[in-house]
Specification:
With 180 residues, the protein is mainly alpha-helical. The protein has one domain. 86% of the residues lie in helices and 0% in strands. The longest helix has 65 residues.
Length: 180
C-alpha cells in the first residue's frame, strides 16, 4: 500500500511539472506571437514610408523633366535626371531594407528575452555580430550619394548582395531562437 502511495505522489508531481512546463511554453509562444505582430506592424510602417519617399522622388524628377528648357537638346540633362532618379529610388529602397532588417534584429533580441535569459551565449554573440554588420551596411547606404557614376552599378550590386546575405542570416538566427 505504501508503494502505491509513493507511486501516486510521484505521478502527481510529474504531472504538475509537465503542466507547468506546458504553461511556460504557452506563455513563451504568446510572447513570441506578440513580438511577431509588432514586427509586422513596424515593417508596414517602413514600407509605407518607403513608398511615400519613392512617390516624392518620382514627382520631383517628373517636375524637373517638365521644366527643362524647350527647343534645346536636353538629351544629356534627361539622362542625368534618369540616373539621378534611379539612384535616389535605389537609395530609398536600400534604406527601407536596412530599416526592416533592424526591426527583425530588434524582434530577435526580444525573442531572446522571452527565453528569460536562457538564450545560449552563441546566439547572443551571433545577434551582436549581425547588429554590427547592419550598422556597417547602414553607413554604406548613407555613403551611396557620394558613389561616382562609373562605379554605381558595381556598388549597387554589392550592396544588394550584402543586404540579401544579412537578411538571410537574420532569418536563420530567428529560426534558431524560435526553435530553442
Amino acid at each position: 500500500m505504501r508503494t502505491y502511495s509513493w507511486v501516486c505522489a510521484v505521478l502527481v508531481l510529474t504531472g504538475a511539472a509537465c503542466g507547468a512546463s506546458t504553461q511556460a511554453q504557452r506563455v513563451r509562444e504568446a510572447r513570441i506571437e506578440h513580438i511577431d505582430q509588432q514586427t509586422v506592424a513596424k515593417t508596414r510602417v517602413i514600407e509605407d514610408r518607403q513608398q511615400a519617399r519613392a512617390d516624392t522622388i518620382s514627382r520631383n524628377h517628373d517636375l524637373a523633366k517638365a521644366n527643362l528648357p524647350k527647343g534645346q537638346d536636353n538629351t544629356a540633362t534627361e539622362q542625368n535626371l534618369e540616373l539621378s532618379e534611379d539612384r535616389a529610388l535605389y537609395e530609398s529602397k536600400a534604406r527601407g531594407r536596412i530599416d526592416t532588417i533592424g526591426v527583425h534584429l530588434e524582434a530577435a533580441r526580444k525573442k531572446m528575452g522571452a527565453e528569460n535569459g536562457r538564450a545560449p551565449a552563441d546566439m547572443r554573440a551571433k545577434l551582436e555580430a549581425l547588429e554590427a554588420v547592419k550598422d556597417r551596411m547602414d553607413q554604406e547606404v548613407r555613403d551611396l550619394p557620394s558613389t561616382p557614376d562609373a562605379q554605381w552599378p558595381y556598388v549597387k550590386q554589392g550592396v544588394d548582395d550584402r543586404l540579401s546575405s544579412l537578411n538571410e542570416r537574420v532569418k536563420d538566427l530567428t529560426q534558431q531562437i524560435e526553435g530553442s
